[in-house]
Amino acid sequence: MDALAQEQLRLDASTVDYALLALYFVFVLGVGFMARRSISNSLDFFLSGRSLPAWVTGLAFIAANLGAIEIIGMSANGAEYGMPTMHYFWVGAVPAMLFLALVMMPFYYGSRVRSVPEFMRLRFGRPAHLVNGISFAAAQILIAGVNLFLLASIVNLLLGWPLWLSLIVSALIVLTYTALGGLSAAIYNEVLQFFVIVGALLPLTLVGLHKVGGWSGLVERVSESPGGAEQLSAWPATELTGFGNSFLSVLGIVFGLGFVLAFGYWTTNFVEVQRAMASRSMSAAQRTPIIGAFPKLLIPFIVVIPGMIAGVSVSEIVTLKAGGSADVDYNDAILLLMRDLLPNGILGIALAGLLASFMAGMAANLSSFNTVFTYDIWQSYVVRDKPDSYYLRMGPWVTAGATVGAVGTAFIASGYENLMDYLQQLFSFFNAPLFATFILGMFWKRMTPTAGWVGLVLGTGSAVLVFSLAETGVLDLPGQGASFVGAGAAFVVDIVASICVSLVTRPKADSELVGLVYSLTPKEDRTASTTGQDSGWYRKPALMAGLVLALTIALNLIFD
């Protein structure tokens, strides 16, 4: 970033703002030290001893996703594309979260596995387990780099430090509390960070709407801006998908984003599933993503709407949208809006909210990485049969190694104008084929162990091929169309390959698949308790999920 761009983005923080930031960091590190006292074995460090209540894991579930993807990526999308960005929440998140709660969590929690790759080992054997473990670990290092890059960028803008120094300092802060308190420190900080993020972005949204003349003023100004009134309707989202044909655009949103990418991310991504696995009962585990779904419905109003406001009120973003020369990109939209609108004091709270979001995202990546690396790679294939205390001591060291890796991958993220393009591409590589393998293996008992790893490898390869063809211009897929097509290709190739391989290889015996395949698992083993701490109509997962689904449908109809 050149000197002019840095000057444009410079936030005029005062002593009050810095004091608020310092107070926030004291709380964050304090949580890490307090969580340290409750750790006595590796299960405590990696899964919080499976002892947390649903409301804590539910808020942590959604806060873990409130990192760069939500704050910077979605505000950038809002500035560039407008209301179609809502699809990432109401089509590309909530339905998949409900599916995870009602269908998949009974298998994850009931099998008592410690990670998603461990479930793969039980269902498909060691080759699929190793492929999934390595691919998941690589994905978390890459995504942690995104959050770290943005966290360091804020420090760089505030203090003027070089980016490399900002990266190291920011990484050390997250490393400290995650290595100290393990998953509990990450989860309790994520609950704190959820409220800090909402407290930061809600005032920014309200002040921004006031500046543009309320909702009607925003509608009028967006209609007159490049992109026009199409940015005010969620459908057909042709600019977002890159498809000129409305039918293909809707198909891309529903199948590519709403089914493959969304279900692949929310149902198999251990970053999210780990929070539910830390719950104290199956009912609490099922309620975790449902509780998270309620705020997920409303978060776009404090993330996407500020991006849209920036698109019509921040001079640099207005110039960028009009095709003019600007020294900023869409990732800067929310920072520039904060610069223009927030007074000192409130600016400090907003900055704390941004830092909280990036730290929550990175801590979630680190806590899930260290669990998978320690249990599914190190313990399974490198150093086996050691006492539990050995793997507990491994936790902080693995966290430190992951942090170093994230520092390296942060520079990859710095090369993207819109980080959502990068992140959705990663999801098409890693999550889409994994979901295909999971969903087929869970409902088709004939699927074989060989098909498990072959499908994963070929599915991932097909997504990488689509990306390569789009990057070289062979396929014309602007916007985020490449990730939607890549995800669809990965899913279809994985399914077809898995079926073909299964038909010529030997499946596991039915007795080995109880608790892993839907048709072979007794209903009582898939049903949560409704007594004791799980009693009450408001603790019934199906009822809560029905309410969330009704709200989701209503929001899609209102903003059609």
TrEMBL record:
Which residues are listed as membrane-spanning? 18-35, 55-76, 88-109, 130-155, 161-180, 192-210, 247-267, 288-309, 346-373, 394-416, 422-444, 451-470, 482-504, 542-559
Localization: Membrane
- Claim: Transmembrane helix is one of the keywords in the record: yes
Recall the GO molecular function terms of this protein's record.
D-glucose:sodium symporter activity
Q: What Pfam families does this protein map onto?
A: SSF
Q: Name one GO cellular component term.
A: plasma membrane
Q: Which superkingdom does the taxonomy of this entry point to?
A: Bacteria
**From the record, what ranges are coiled-coil?**
none
Protein family membership: Belongs to the sodium:solute symporter (SSF) (TC 2.A.21) family.
Q: Which InterPro entries match?
A: Na/Glc_symporter_sf (IPR038377), Na/solute_symporter (IPR001734), Na/solute_symporter_CS (IPR018212)
Topology of this chain in the membrane: Multi-pass membrane protein
Q: Which organism is it from?
A: Haloactinospora alba
Keywords attached to this entry:
Membrane, Transmembrane, Transmembrane helix
This chain belongs to the protein called SSS family solute:Na+ symporter
Principal cellular location given in the protein's record: membrane
- Asked if the keyword Zinc belongs to this entry, the reply reads no
